[in-house]
Amino acid sequence: MDEEYDCIVLGTGLTECILSGMLSVSGKKVLHMDRNKYYGGESASITPLDDLFTKFGVPSPDEAYGRGRDWNVDLIPKFLMAQGQLVKLLIHTGVTRYLEFKSIEGSYVMGKSGKISKVPADEKEALSSDLMGLFEKRRFKNFLVFVQEFEQENPATWKDVDPNTTNMDEVYKKFSLDENTQDFVGHALCLYRNDDYRSKPCLEAINRIKLYSNSLAKYGKSPYLYPLYGLGELPQGFARLSAIYGGTYMLDKSVDEIVMEGGKVVGVRSGGETAKCKQVYCDPTYVTDKVKKIGQVVRCICLMDHPIPNTKDALSTQIIIPQKQVGRKSDIYVTMTSYTTQVASKGWFIAMVSTTVETENPEAEIQPGINLLGPIKQKFLQVSDVFEPVEDGTASQVFISKSYDATSHFETTCLDVLNIFKRGTGEEFDFSKVKHTLEDEI
Fold this sequence. Notes:
The protein is of the alpha/beta class. It has helices at 14-25, 49-55, 85-93, 123-128, 134-149, 168-174, 179-189, 203-219, 233-244, 362-365, 367-370, 411-425, 438-441, and strands at 4-10, 30-33, 45-46, 73-74, 80-81, 101-103, 106-110, 116-118, 224-227, 248-250, 257-261, 264-270, 273-282, 291-304, 317-321, 332-338, 349-356, 378-389, 398-400. Strands 1, 2, 10, 11, 12, 13 and 19 form a 7-stranded mixed sheet that branches. Strands 8-7-15-16-17-14-18 form a 7-stranded mixed sheet. A 3-stranded antiparallel sheet has the order 5-9-6. Helix 1 (14-25) crosses helix 12. The radius of gyration is 22 Å and the shape is globular. The two termini are 36 Å apart. 47% of the residues are buried. The model has no long low-confidence stretch (mean pLDDT 94).
């Protein structure tokens, strides 16, 4: 270990693994360490099933759950947008050759009636959706056509909407969309977590809707992908990749000190050994003095022997409950995966309900999501603190990621990865370098 590296990455959470891959591919010599015996940190996949029950202090599972080894339960399950930036980053690093992805079967949203409906993302779905009345369907269809035909470089497609000055509220007014439609557009199509976007220029929102539609068009049932055997496959794929680029992975390695000189990082000490480096990238648990708590997330893992009701028996799905529908400031997210994604034994399903904590009673806050699931065989509740770095790291060269938020997709994590990459290398990641698609990899 007593060597010199360009970068040392601490923690094998998803953010750190992607950064490690990007740095390796760009020619950096990387040492990647984790104090745990397992990959994934906060975002680990737990297998066998006994380990999950033990982790939450619950008596061992009975035979009904099948073979314990058939389970890979993600502590923080998130889906990937098929045409999103994270998939492009994974392709760019080459880690996709070690992974197999499966399309998620359904994408739903809770409407004002309290029932869940498929998120309508094209004109045909708009006209058949039960989220809207007849006249609203037509208005929404016109809105979708406008978004699909919109091209930033071609002002002829703007239809009196200036993407850089017109805000999203004004766009909604232009198409006379009602509050309920605005709600599912903002939260289930654009995946915004609050309504701040309404007063900002509409370009970003338009691009987000296009991303959703293009991702949906790619695989048909939903815009989301998920790796077979769960997200724990990602860190392991990155470990293999790192070896190709001459990087080193070390699990079960204590991190006793990040060594600083003159306010800048010069190495990492583990016991009597010190590895020298110019930069450190890590998650908040390795630098508790350089982060601040900004809130909490409540997550509930639910094991079930049936799919979620009212989702046409989808074997994997996402449901978003927009904040306003349940009188909250933040959305509630539901994901469900099952034996078809190789994360549970035959006939079993794993649902996760998560949201940002707003009260003293987090368990009650996720109840609207729990209520959608039907009978639950076993629940595991976890409340996690959310941290972010207090400085950007350019002075010390210690670059710290944010804790994972409540969202059920990777869009926010990906923004953090790109932001850290820019802070650490001084340049934006160039997506034009990514020439392949997932199909090329298969």
